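Protein Record: Sequence and Backbone Structure Tokens
======================================================
Scope: a single protein chain, as residues and as a discrete description of its fold.
Tokens: labelled as protein backbone structure tokens, with as many entries as the chain has residues.
Position: the record begins directly beneath this header, with no further notes in between.
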Amino acid sequence: MDPIERTTKTRSYPPTPAEADRRVLITGGAGFLGVNAAQHLVKEGWHVTLLDNLSRTGTERNLRWLITKYPDRTTFIKEDVRNAAALPEAVQNQDAIIHLAGQVAVTTSLADPNTDFDVNARGTLNMLEAVRLHNHDAPFLFASTNKVYGKLDENNSACKETQPLDFHSPYGCSKGSADQYVRDYSRVFGMNTVVLRQSCIYGAHQYGTEDQGWVAHFVHSIIQERPLTIYGDGRQVRDLLDARDLSAMYATAIEKIAITRGEVYNVGGGPENQRNLLEVIDLIGEVTSKKPRYEFSDWREGDQKFYVSDISKARRDLGWEPRVDFDRGLRELIAWAESVS
């Protein structure tokens, strides 16, 4: 039997005694971030339930890998966060919820703003309501984005959580709306919600595209000797964070919910791990011994010319900081990508 079919459970709650004592639900759990978070939490003794509609390229492959590796510690629910009626049963009996499901690309939001809103804003509200009514006190982590800050000016300084919000693009609006709902549900309903405004995350199990997941997109394209298109001048700066460090942040935010409850954190690689696109391309070429091919095109709507996270709040409150420097993390991403090519 296919491992996905073997572990899929649609209505199998409450958990059986054989399952782990602590349970976490990860929406978007078969995605790149979800699989990395799931593996980290399984190793820490959690039973992980992954809820995903498997619409994104690579999710079935990720899911099959995870549940084959950890068949007794994983459960899969094929569902969509837009289906509010299915969510109450999924969130019951969970000790924590990590909400990662979302529409992830600015370009897609420009082409189809309605779906972008339904998935990111309405889908998040559906999750919040399910937890509020059926598992009120469970820690609820939300994967927000640096795009809530808009295009920013070009002062080349790290962005603090106090930076005024300036939603730009339908994607920025939908994620920003969700971000504020999650934050406010702690204030008005007393829920244990946490907002994590994530910067550029990369790592194993990432099948990036031109629209989202650009580090992995560059890696896969250069390995397979496909030409790249660089939008803008290629000198856009981002701080890059390995998914393993992000997964550790998720675990810490849950464990220290008395501190993180109601808070917003910028989560990225910080100034030490900032690079521009051309630097990343050159390093991939050096590591793979392949000559990258690329051409330039116009800037895309809403693109930030400079974004680096100020992570001092997470460091101060939680003792969290990145452990994997970018040069090492990129080499390990390349090794993984070569193994699956």
Q: What stands out?
A: The first helix runs from residue 3 to 7.
